[in-house]
Amino acid sequence: MRTNVQRDAYYRLAKEQGYRARSAFKLLQLDEELNLFKGTILAKNAEANEDVTRVIDLCAAPGSWSQVLSQKIPYYTYLVCF
Predict the structure, then answer these.
(1) What is the rounded CA–CA span in Å between residue 18 and residue 76?
(2) Is the residue at 4 inside a domain?
(3) Closest C-alpha among 30, 29, 11 to residue 21
(4) Is residue 82 within 8 Å of residue 66, measured between CB atoms?
(5) What letter does residue 2 receive in the DSSP assignment?
(6) 5 burial type by CB count under 10 A (0-12 exposed, 13-18 middle, 19+ buried)
(7) Tens digits of residue pLDDT in 10-58
(8) Paired residues of 56 in beta bridges
(9) Concatenated DSSP letters for 4-70?
(10) Which of 36, 41, 37 has its CA nearest to residue 51?
(11) The model scores a pTM over 0.90
């Protein structure tokens, strides 16, 4: 088993910031690049500034994406995690 010293920087950063896994940073990066939660890559008939109102996180283990989603999406958004 690897020790924390042997783990990469994102693993350590995730633990420091309270995320369950380093994959949280991948979702943050995707949101920064694609503006996922503002509706810009949604269906063609969606408004460009329309907020996302529903999110389903399938296979939500270990839960780091769910953590990010709960911080990034508006309070009135439905967030369902399985």
Answers:
(1) 24
(2) no
(3) 11
(4) no
(5) -
(6) exposed
(7) 999 999 999 999 999 999 999 898 888 776 554 455 555 577 788 888 8
(8) 80
(9) TTTS-HHHHHHHHHT-SSTHHHHHHHHHHHH-GGGTTTS-TTS-TTPPP-EEEESS--S-HHHHHHH
(10) 37
(11) no
Number of domains in the chain: 1
Residue 1: inside a domain: no
What whole-number distance in Å separates Cα of residue 66 and Cα of residue 50? 21
**pLDDT beyond 80 at 61:** yes
26 contact partners, CB below 8 Å, separation of at least 6: none
Residue 25 inside a domain? The answer is yes
40 found inside a domain = yes
pLDDT for 29 equals 94
Domain ranges, residue 27: 9-81
